[in-house]
Amino acid sequence: MDDDLFALAQVPKEHTLPLAVRMRPRKLDEVVGQEKAVAEGTPLERLASAHQSSGQNLTAPSSVILFGPPGVGKTTLAYIVAQQSGRFFEELSAVTSGVKEVRAVLAHARERLVSTGQETVLFIDEVHRFSKSQQDALLPAVENRDVTLVAATTENPSFSVISPLLSRSVVVKLEALDTDNLSKLLERALVDERGLKGEVKLNAAAKDRIISLSGGDARKALTTLEAAADAVIGDQPRKKGARKSMITEEVVASVMDVASVRYDKQGDDHYDVASAFIKSMRGSDPDAALHYLARMIRAGEDPRFIARRIMIAAAEEVGMAAPQILQTTVAAAQAVAMVGMPEARIILSEAVLAVATAPKSNASYMAIDQALADVDAGNIGQVPIHLRNAPTQLMKQWGNHKGYQYAHDQPGAVASQQYMPDELVGRTYYHPNDRGYERELGPRLERIRTILRSASNPAGSQGSPSQAGGDSPQVNNDSED
Question: pTM of the full predicted structure?
Answer without folding.
Answer: 0.56
